Amino acid sequence: MHSSISLSFPPNCSVLKRSHKNNQFEQFSFAPLDLQFCGLRKEAAVNFSFSQLKRCEIQNSVRILRNNVVSASVADNGSAPTSFDYDVVIIGAGVGGHGAALHAVEKGLKTAIIEGDVVGGTCVNRGCVPSKALLAVSGRMRELKNEHHLKALGLQVSAAGYDRQAVADHANNLALKIRNNLTNSMKALGVDILTGVGTIVGPQRVKYGKVGFSDNEVTARDIIIATGSVPFVPRGIEVDGKTVITSDHALKLEFVPEWIAIVGSGYIGLEFSDVYTALGSEVTFIEALDQLMPGFDPEISKLAQRVLVNPRKIDYHTGVFATKITPAKDGRPVVIELTDAKTKELKEILEVDAALIATGRAPFTNGLGLDNINVLTQRGFIPVDERMRVIDADGKLVPHLYCIGDANGKMMLAHAASAQGISVVEQVSGRDHVLNHLSIPAACFTHPEISMVGLTEPQAREKAEKDGFEISIAKTSFKANTKALAENEGEGLAKLIYRPDTGEILGVHIFGMHAADLIHEASNAMALGTRIQDIKFAVHAHPTLSEVLDELFKSAKVNTQDHSSVREPIAI
């Protein structure tokens, strides 16, 4: 269906337009336009409010209308096209690509997303989503097996058991449901889903299709790379997918070993230790650094180890590398050679039923055609600036090219990728936006949960010493929270790191029941620049777990006498 609209402007009216040369905005004047719209939802094309015009500056919406007649003219690989098939093409349909696509449609941009595997990427299919299904099972199992806890609540439950295949099906079905939801949401909003592997063949040009047969080519005013990551497997470790596995394999839960070694004690390793021990396995952590959970605030790590590790069937080796792992074969167990991290000498040999490699993730950036645009990766990561704009081998910005999510390595979290994608779309729509990564929360969904946002205490002290200011620490316990005590879940701690002179929140760390949900009050406060002296007046329902944060902020001692936040009382 074709629609048309005529736009008339005052004789001296200037509008903002993006320059293809330097990716900046420049002014130009034009005569009345008679615009044809093809391939756009009508409401997206014509829903333009002229009352929004201010001093004759018409930003991105008009640019979209003016350029939607597309007839791609393609020169050689080194030349940029003069007109485009799409405003935005996104390579990768994970959580980051999906978030960018939906926001682009909201902004009225004609959008396509290229996916060579399945919609949803790692998070939906092999990560956050199916792992939460397994963790939901482990949580229920822990409750049913905890006789002391149940007795305190006056409950009596017979022995709890589980059906391994039914648990695995629950995880798989959840991933399928979320994947279908993401696909349908994009289709319903008019996002074109292009199937195949995407390769950049030149400025603002992408080919896609099956590997070796990428004959389809599209052009786009802006391209967003969102290809994500894959499990990182160190050298010397042989993965067979059965007895030596990555998180991709573990989520299928094809068997529950009696004894499993988990290499790495970060988010992934901790969550799988929660699942396996709840289902009856014994776990051995292998950690290269001198302490477990090295990425967490040290005080939180110490408490978490006391609750999540020590009482469970878990032992650990720290300060060692798993330099060689051989899968089980012909009745022989999995063999793991442990080497001292400092001396590099062989320290011990373990024989276990299975080994899970949870040593982090590596960017998936091979085959993107980055050499066609003079971009060199750094340890596989695509270099970007604070606005996610790709930087080439000469240190220059590549016009109209962005990279979000795990592929750029700034913060390897699904929701961070989505936030970066939204930030990029804001920029290509004409509104400058820089994402504050320190305000992005993270969570580990163990039982109890761990969550955090901002700096750890050592990081905050280092920054304070460097920049010349003092920091203070406030803490509150779940043992003082009525709702936690009603649930008989008083084990937990919330910790606030802040500047007493300004009230700025530097970091918040929580260990306890529903910590992953509680952290957002703190992360949103940081994102919005809310100071402690303001947020401590917020009201929380009683009795709720949210009062843990309420008490935390109220216990902070801020020295400043800032009256700028004082408001006149409102009569009701």
Automatic annotation (TrEMBL):
Q: How is the cofactor bound?
A: Binds 1 FAD per subunit.
Q: For this protein, what is the EC number?
A: 1.8.1.4
UniProt keyword annotations, A-Z? Chloroplast, Disulfide bond, FAD, Flavoprotein, NAD, Nucleotide-binding, Oxidoreductase, Plastid, Redox-active center, Transit peptide
A Gene Ontology molecular function term for this protein is: flavin adenine dinucleotide binding
- Statement: the UniProt record of this protein carries the keyword Chloroplast: yes
- Into which EC class is this enzyme placed? oxidoreductase
GO CC annotation = chloroplast stroma; mitochondrion; oxoglutarate dehydrogenase complex
Query: Which reactions fall under this protein's catalytic activity?
Result: N(6)-[(R)-dihydrolipoyl]-L-lysyl-[protein] + NAD(+) = N(6)-[(R)-lipoyl]-L-lysyl-[protein] + NADH + H(+)
Locate the active site: H542 (proton acceptor)
User: What is known about its subunit structure?
Assistant: Homodimer. Part of the plastidial pyruvate dehydrogenase complex (PDC) containing multiple copies of three enzymatic components: pyruvate dehydrogenase (E1), dihydrolipoamide acetyltransferase (E2) and lipoamide dehydrogenase (E3).
Family per record: Belongs to the class-I pyridine nucleotide-disulfide oxidoreductase family.
What PANTHER family does the entry give?
DIHYDROLIPOYL DEHYDROGENASE 2, CHLOROPLASTIC-LIKE, DISULFIDE OXIDOREDUCTASE
Q: Which named protein is this?
A: dihydrolipoyl dehydrogenase
Q: Which organism is it from?
A: Nicotiana tabacum
The protein's gene is named: LOC107802918
